[in-house]
Fold:
Amino acid sequence: MSSLLTNTAAMTALTTLKITNQDLEKSSNRVSTGLKVATAADNAAYWSIATTIRADNGSLGAVKDAIGLGLATVNSAINGLEQVRTTFLDLKNKLTSALSPSVDRNKIQSEINARQTDLRTSATSATLNGESWLSTDSGAGNYSADRKIVASFSRVQGQIAVGTVSVNLDETKLYDAKVFTGASAGTTGVTVSGSAAATAAIATRNTAQATYDAAIAAFNNSAKDAAAVATRDAATATYNTAMATYQNTVKTTNAGATAGVDSKGGLLDKKYAVVGADENGFNHAYLLSVDTIDIAGIQNSDLSKLRAYVNMADKVLTGITDVATKLGAVQSLIQSQSNYVDTLIKNNEKSIGILVDADMEDESTKLKALQVQQQLGIQSLTIANQSTQQILSLFRS
Structure:
């Protein structure tokens, strides 16, 4: 039965065309945006997950920037420390060369003064964004030895956690502007080489040495008869006894000497409690600093202070090496975290792509198919609308 009021075929064709147009619009949007889930209406679950991951990626990006800034600060400190180490090795070599009795220590002191200036300049220049890890002022009101560098970001069961790496400036500083007093200023050790026993042992050794040298000279110029041999042997025995007594006195005396206690401060401006042996082998205690090295007045008759400076330089070099080791470990850790965060960002981007990105090959094929269906739908609707025209022929005479 045909009806002028209800065209079932046209209604069906129109419905089909509307659905096709909707699918065509959706496919066209996917092709133009590259997304199959652009809004929550497309897929609420996927859109929610992708939105959370995008937020995490934003946080990871901020963490990566913070890590980069922290890594730059560490690199600045390491570069400055390497310059300090090179300069200090030169200074240490000059102290060692000053032990030679024929050198001009005034000239060496002038070179040491230049190296001291270089050391301070290198330490104070190793700054980035106001952060100085080699030259500090622990007496400042806002001073904090603990420096934290953002190193990681994670979300576990909805809980966000930001990890940090800590650096203690008290373990890395080379200079500290704070003036330490009391026990923190360090204490000089005890020197006991001026005891009566030590003085007597030195005198006995010197006398025995002179007697021995004279006896050997007389023996070499003699007929080397029994009397000459006896005189030589007696002088030798006396000399050996005196030397043994002297060496035992040195050992005993030095055992009573103490190095004292180092002061607080940076590696290069703190005072080190060290000992140095004099020309007789007895230890003398000193409280010395790299920042105030002065060898100009040291005489060859007593090089104990110069030897103490050399011993101090060994302690300082060990300290610089330890600082370099700590900073190197931090640098390696931060670089590793930076690489890991970068990997996380890329993995998150891949995850977002899997959830919301459109398959362009598939969408292209669908688009073409829907365009054909649209044309067919229009053609079907046209045919359906034309069917009612055929009824008019029935009313013609």
Observations:
- The chain has seven helices and ten strands.
